[in-house]
Design a protein that fits this description.
The protein is of the alpha/beta class. The protein is built from eleven helices and nine strands. A hairpin with a 5-residue loop joins strand 8 and strand 9. The radius of gyration is 21 Å and the shape is elongated.
Length: 287
């Protein structure tokens, strides 16, 4: 890329390179990466495409485009992703919070608000916290709620805590390093998790952007992909308030199996929600 490039010309060149690399949406990815360097919104590309780029901007853009050519996901390159209208920083030890997981937040929100109506407060436990996206989105939406986020990854714990501080939610959010319920105490009105649910033998067949760049520990759900659900179904009763609920994200073909696992521990399915693609994505259980 030459230092005399305009933004418009830079987008065209980057698009051509990403297209040749087999990237599915080269135009959007080019604009996101270039915009991340020069502070452009998508609208700015239309209104200010003739703006010339500085040499240092071209160099930084070149580095990002080269990473995308090698298959690294756009939001991992940028180090952040929007979720539920909030901006979350990512790290190597966290999954990208994806749009389908917003379905879990939407499904949980009425139960959090109902707890607040009953007792002027709601306590949330989010296991496998990652970036903190699920719990922090709920805390942002419901000021009376408090949350605990647990994870076995120190990197995830640090990332979630950092996001809570950036979003001014740290006073209502606590992090605990824990293998599921191992170090959890107290009771909660709602227990949530987007757990690892991919079968171990399937991970090597996933899209390159997932298998090479998402943390393995956040994907691997065991031999049948259902191990985390068994743990949650067995132990959650010891941490649920009376009338509390458990909400989990599931794989597209796991609805029947996960429902059976929870039913075997005395739970009934209170709500079943599909994602934006029409697949079963979230189950809410109560005893």
């Amino acid at each position: 890329m030459k230092s005399s490039l305009t933004v418009q010309a830079c987008v065209a060149e980057a698009k051509q390179r990403l297209n040749a690399a087999g990237i599915a949406d080269p135009t959007t990815d080019a604009r996101l990466l270039i915009g991340g360097v020069i502070g452009f919104s998508l609208t700015d590309f239309v209104l200010n495409g003739a703006r010339p780029l500085q040499t240092d901007e071209v160099d930084r853009i070149e580095a990002l485009i080269a990473r995308r050519e090698r298959g690294e996901p756009v939001h991992r390159i940028l180090g952040r992703r929007e979720f539920y209208g909030l901006d979350f920083l990512l790290s190597q030890g966290t999954l990208e919070p994806r749009p389908d997981t917003e379905v879990l937040v939407n499904a949980a929100l009425p139960y959090v608000r109902a707890a607040v109506q009953r007792k002027d407060a709601a306590r949330i436990l989010d296991m496998g916290i990652g970036t903190g996206a699920i719990c922090l989105s709920l805390l942002h939406a419901v000021p009376e709620a408090t949350g605990v986020g647990s994870d076995i990854s120190q990197d995830a714990i640090a990332t979630a805590r950092g996001n809570a501080e950036r979003l001014a939610l740290a006073e209502r959010f606590e992090t605990i390093e824990s293998d599921w319920f191992e170090h959890i105490s107290g009771r909660f009105d709602i227990i949530l998790s987007n757990p690892p649910y991919i079968r171990t033998d399937v991970i090597d067949t996933l899209d390159r952007e997932v298998r090479e760049f998402d943390p393995f520990i956040a994907l691997d759900g065991g031999v049948d992909g259902l191990l985390p659900y068994r743990v949650i179904a067995e132990k959650a009763v010891d941490f649920l308030e009376s009338g509390g609920v458990v909400g989990v994200e599931i794989g597209y073909d796991q609805m029947a199996d996960v429902t059976t696992i929870f039913a075997s521990k005395g739970y009934e399915c209170a709500n079943r929600v599909k994602d934006y693609g029409g697949h079963d994505r979230v189950l809410i259980f109560r005893r």
